[in-house]
Amino acid sequence: MFRSYWVVAAMSVLAATTCRNEPAHNAIPAPLALSPSAASPAPLSVSRRIALADEETACVIDSFEYRVVCRGREGEELATFGREGDGPGEFRGLRLVARVSPGRLGVVDSRLNRLTIFNATGDRVSDVTLPPGYLADGIREATVFGFDIDMTAFSPGDSILPRIYLEVGINSGEVTWKRGGMNGIADTECGGLQNGVPRPGAGYVFWACRRELVFLDDRDADAATVVRSPAYREELPSDRDVEAFAEGLTRLGGRMPMPRSAAEPYVEAFREEPRRWFNAPHALVFDSRDRLWVATTLDRHTFSYFEIWIGTEYAGSVRVLDRAMGFDLFENTLAVLVERQPGPDGIAPRGIDWYDIRDLDCRASEAYRGCRLRPRGGRSGAPDGGL
């Protein structure tokens, strides 16, 4: 049965040598609870994307108004740009907002196959046409990365849709790297990979199946390192998860939504399946210290959790408030787009929580593994270990 909520992707290649690494430490450190330094409102939206233009400006997609809204730490509206339409600075299908450079944002419209660069003030800088059908996942330096569905390789009964991964120049719109047919490069539990992000320096990292990360040292390599999250906890979907899945099914029909009666078999199947571990889309983000932050699905009611990895080693996890929908990192700031608790009308308002992570110390050494807050101007007192 096709489960559209989590079935999205896969890769395969010429015969590959795959090694599966298990973290060397048996004890899993308890998550470190972080406290927000500020909170801002955010518009209701179907989109879960958020981008930090700088440490004081967070931008999100307002899908109902076809625009991007940027707010400061105190909730002040710093810029709002875009409207429904096909012209310059207008949108039809907002998919992505991402930082191109400090103070500059890239906005991808998947229906118009267009990337528009804006200043954080809302001034349009440039436009470029993207390949048809291209599904952008993020922007790194001068490159948009993402994928296209390879329908030529699709077979009925596939549990993961086959993908062609692409990188596209933000100035030219030309494909600078392309790779498909990657099923088999990694010995994952479900035989495929999901969303990936470029690793600092070289290579890629993908999330796969229910609890696995797949690391490539080189994006064209025929061998991968598969690592299972040691913090994985099997949980069934919550009522809130199930309702979100049901709403997502009805949205798939666009102007002709799927009737709830027709969606019910899929909803019931989703209710009985343990939920995936990775909170996609946009589950993987590297911070300025090259630590990989992984958004998980643990709880996501009162609290949400992020794993932190250093290289291919699990270092620990942190806990934030409310139901995380998306997140971004820039320098010393973590911004989390969240849903608050539903009000009497059943509607969960959205917000942006800001966290100062300059003193966050996470280590994956033999001497110490875990995350802690380092006192400013002094040592944390925990055993020393290199990053």
Structural shape: globular
* Class derived from helix and strand content: mainly beta
The total count of helices amounts to 2
Secondary structure: number of strands: 28
Would you list the SSEs in sequence order as H and E?
A: EEEEEEEEEEEEEEEEEEEHHEEEEEEEEE
Give the N-terminus to C-terminus distance in angstroms: 44 Å
Written account of the structure:
The protein is mainly β and 387 residues long. The chain is built from 2 helices and 28 strands. Strands 1-19-18-17-16 form a 5-stranded mixed β-sheet, with no helix packed on it. Strands 2-23-22-21-20 form a 5-stranded mixed β-sheet, with no helix packed on it. Strands 3-26-25-24 form a 4-stranded antiparallel β-sheet, with no helix packed on it. The radius of gyration is 20 Å and the shape is globular. The relative contact order is 0.16. The N terminus and C terminus are likely disordered.
Quick structural overview:
With 387 residues, the protein is mostly beta strands.
Which keywords apply here?
disordered N terminus; globular; 387 residues; five-stranded mixed β-sheet; mainly beta; disordered C terminus; 2 helices; single chain
SSE order and pairing:
Elements: E1 18-21, E2 32-33, E3 38-42, E4 50-54, E5 57-62, E6 67-71, E7 77-81, E8 94-101, E9 104-109, E10 114-119, E11 124-129, E12 135-140, E13 143-149, E14 163-169, E15 175-180, E16 196-198, E17 204-208, E18 212-216, E19 224-228, H1 239-252, H2 260-272, E20 284-286, E21 292-295, E22 303-310, E23 313-321, E24 323-330, E25 333-339, E26 350-356, E27 360-364, E28 369-373
Parallel strand pairs: 1-19, 2-23
Antiparallel strand pairs: 3-26, 4-5, 5-6, 6-7, 8-9, 9-10, 10-11, 12-13, 13-14, 14-15, 16-17, 17-18, 18-19, 20-21, 21-22, 22-23, 24-25, 25-26, 27-28
